[in-house]
């Protein structure tokens, strides 16, 4: 199963201790291990929230706004798409990422659209509440 790992900075996390962040393994080791064995398939850093642009269509008009958009203290600093046989394995992979020590990792299972034969949901799998297309 594929998972999106959102790599978050959490500067105001009250549980974050300096020794946790200081004990984080180097990112190069995580990349070498997980990209090297093919479990991580895509990833990159993201520019800061102030460089973001929001795009919405309202009343038939395209509205573009400059970031940042959220009121949250967390910011998405990057992402990785990983292949793992199950959630437990994905959690282990996420826990090995340096930002799990000094920030946070959010794991989200990918919900395939079924448009690509290689990404179709398993037969009999729940198509979700909005089955019928995106």
Automatic annotation (TrEMBL):
**Domain (YCII-related) ranges:** 1-112
Instruction: Write down the Pfam families for this protein, in alphabetical order.
Output: YCII (PF03795)
Q: Which domain of life is it from?
A: Bacteria
Gene3D superfamilies, A to Z: Dimeric alpha+beta barrel (3.30.70.1060)
- Entry-linked InterPro entries: Dimeric_a/b-barrel, YCII
Coiled-coil regions, chain positions? none
Family label: Belongs to the YciI family.
The name under which this protein is listed is YciI family protein
């Amino acid at each position: 199963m594929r998972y999106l790992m959102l790599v978050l900075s959490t500067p105001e996390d009250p549980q974050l201790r300096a020794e946790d962040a200081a004990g984080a393994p180097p990112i190069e080791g995580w990349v070498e291990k997980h990209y090297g064995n093919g479990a991580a398939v895509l990833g990159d850093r993201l520019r800061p929230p102030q460089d973001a642009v929001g795009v919405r269509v309202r009343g038939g008009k395209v509205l573009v706004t400059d970031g940042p958009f959220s009121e949250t203290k967390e910011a998405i600093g990057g992402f990785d798409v990983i292949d793992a046989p199950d959630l437990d394995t994905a959690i282990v992979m996420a826990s090995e990422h340096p930002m799990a020590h000094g920030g946070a990792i959010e794991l989200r299972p990918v919900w395939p659209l079924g448009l690509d034969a290689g990404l179709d949901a398993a037969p009999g799998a729940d198509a979700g509440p909005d089955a019928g297309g995106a």
